[in-house]
Design brief:
By secondary structure, the chain is of the alpha+beta class. It has helices spanning 3-6, 47-59, 82-94, and strands at 9-16, 23-28, 65-72, 101-105, 109-116, 119-127. The structure holds zinc ion.
């Protein structure tokens, strides 16, 4: 796996049920050249990600919004790093009006995590077929 691919990330765009127990992922933003290549400088507030989120929100008349983030890991079944946890907690703080989900794409599995009672739990795991 190339270095670039292992560090890809973006925003998740979709909708959720009123009780936040169901999510519908509709779109995700993909890395662009102005994004920093290093994980340390991971910055979801890069302008083009925000622009995509805003334009989906407007064209769907508020049905679609920011749902969380996705990124890739150079390991078969991904588990969140301490950096991920810190980053996810910041995302949750910035978006107190909704429940966020966080996707990590590994080499074999894609996993989805969300915060339940103060800690991050894996709520979904599926093999990537290629
Ligand atoms: Zn990570």
């Amino acid at each position: 796996m190339s270095r670039d691919r292992s560090e890809a990330f973006g925003a998740l765009i979709g909708s959720q049920s009123a009780d936040a127990n169901e999510f519908w992922l509709e779109h995700c933003t993909t890395p662009q050249k102005e994004d920093s290549a290093t994980r340390v400088n991971f910055n979801m507030r890069a302008p083009h990600h925000q622009k995509s989120v805003d334009s989906y929100y407007e064209s769907s008349h508020g049905k679609l919004g920011y749902l969380g983030t996705w990124h890739t890991h150079p390991e078969p079944t991904p588990t969140p790093s301490n950096i991920d946890i810190t980053d996810w907690k910041k995302c949750i703080k910035r978006n107190p009006d909704r429940q966020l989900i966080f996707v990590i794409v590994g080499q074999k599995d894609v996993c989805i995590f969300r915060e339940i009672n103060g800690s991050f739990k894996r709520i979904f795991k599926e093999k990537i077929d290629d």
